[in-house]
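Exercise: predict the fold of this chain.
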Amino acid sequence: MPHYVPNLRDIGGMPAVDGAVVKRNKVLRSAMPALGDRVPEMILWPPALVIDLRSPAESEGTHPLDSRAARIINLPLLSALRPGAAPAEDLIGLYRVMVDFADLRLLELVREVSNATGPTLIHCAAGKDRTGVSVALLLRLVGVPREDVVDDYLASADALDAILARLQKIAGREHRETLPKAFLEVPVEAIVSVLDYWDSHDGGTEGWLDAVGAEAGLTERLRSTLLA
């Protein structure tokens, strides 16, 4: 029996900078999709671009959307850890690890989304942590208020049953067996810690991206792509 893509939602409709709003069906976010998954009628499917944030060990081989004419890009955020990096003990630590060590991959994600001409799906395994940090970055760069970014992150809590069912379906991989229980939660403190970190940077989130190596005009290009 077909199931819906777990934790799937369109980030469109949020208020952004200068009275603009995020366009509908430009950026979708979800947990790992599977062959035969259904989507709500208002979602444009299949996406034109899929950004898979999972590590190679999590991959099933051919991506389930690869045969649907989607362009698949792999940006494994947790494979970017540098030698000697201490493992994260909670999601606050995990998110900081991503921001610190996967900064170049987050920059590449911004570039890809800014250049996309059709719907882009961003996903990891659960669609709440790696996907949550990535989407929060996009939303803050286009001027979505912090409270709306937090609300979007917290919406994953409503999908936890579907997320866990999907994770159980693809269970058996080593990284699943050692996940702390806290990693299966949706704590507001985790995403707030990332937002605080970006806001504390000189120039805010855009200043952080510039320091990572963003080319001139990237944020404006992203806004042109995502905002109406």
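Check your answer against the key: The CA atoms of residues 57 and 165 lie 19 Å apart.
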